[in-house]
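User: Hello! My lab partner asked me to get a predicted holo structure for this protein. The small molecule is nicotinamide-adenine-dinucleotide, SMILES included with the sequence. Please write out the structure tokens.
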Amino acid sequence: MASRVAPDEVRTIACAGVGVIGGGWVAYFLAHGYRVVAWDPAPDADERLRRLVDNAWPALTEIGLADGASRDNLTIESDLVTAVADADFIQESAPESLDLKIKLLADIDDAAPPQVVVSSSTSGYGMSEMQVSCVRPERTIVGHPFNPPYLIPLVEVVGGDRTAPDVVEWTSDFFRHAGKSVITMDHEVPGFIANRLQEAMWREALHMVAAGEATVEQIDVAITDGPGLRWPIHGPCLTFHLAGGQGGIGHMLDHFGPSLESPWTRLVSTELTPQLRDAMVAGCDREADGRTIDELVAERDRGVIAVLRALGRL
Ligand SMILES: NC(=O)c1ccc[n+]([C@@H]2O[C@H](COP(=O)([O-])OP(=O)(O)OC[C@H]3O[C@@H](n4cnc5c(N)ncnc54)[C@H](O)[C@@H]3O)[C@@H](O)[C@H]2O)c1
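Assistant: Hello! Below are the structure tokens for the protein in complex with nicotinamide-adenine-dinucleotide.
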């Protein structure tokens, strides 16, 4: 069996399923100088894909194209077997249906050179449940992007029960080399990290709308003119580190801990044990990396102003 190319030697990427996400991946990989071979069974897929890539190209050009990047490096194949034949890496972005993913991943596994990593864009299925019909499940993995994949940096990488550890490492290295921000997860959690967080908020939003407690507009403004402005800079944990003033997250948890344990939400809340409190403090200290509260406040404020200006809200 031929050996797998190194993550920084990937030249040709096959994208199977090129709708919103797969098409976004195609645009991203083209802009980063890769040769891309796309396949999608829909009759209008070619036209949709070319439109999506053309629409994304100005933004990608503004950010900066890699040497040799060109839309001419895109080939669209009409059959899966040809599409994956010369691939160094494969990204699957077909509809979110477990049966469809199980069959498609098995078909890709049958057709692709045996050493090539096969990654799925799934938003929530674990690879353990999708790799069940693959002959070589060890090379299948989740690489979960965010819409649009050509602008949002994050990819969550997580293997299934039968994914080989070196495939997890290779895939994380590949996405990093391709310019992505990578979270490599050791545990297969439904929805991964970011979607679990998004879904928690989404669940609350739906409760409030259903109960007539908030409008859709109020919920969106609550985020875009509220906490959402802080999240591009610090994320929810370090944001609360600053909510505790000079006492940081420790003071914040001591102050609000009792009310956190009361039913603020309609969800079952986690018991705030001393261990959890200490883990949160330690995590924020690690993230702060020696920066004082005042330095973090200044960093946050500079960032919020820059985002406001960038969004035309000043
Ligand atoms: N939309 C998002 O925000 C988002 C974000 C992250 C991950 N994802 C995941 O990406 C995947 C694709 O979602 P999407 O939003 O791009 O959906 P989409 O409907 O826009 O695109 C799906 C594409 O798959 C094609 N397709 C249909 N049957 C197929 C098959 N058997 N084999 C290959 N392709 C087939 C369709 O023609 C279509 O072009 C899903 O797994 C989804 O969970 C979506």
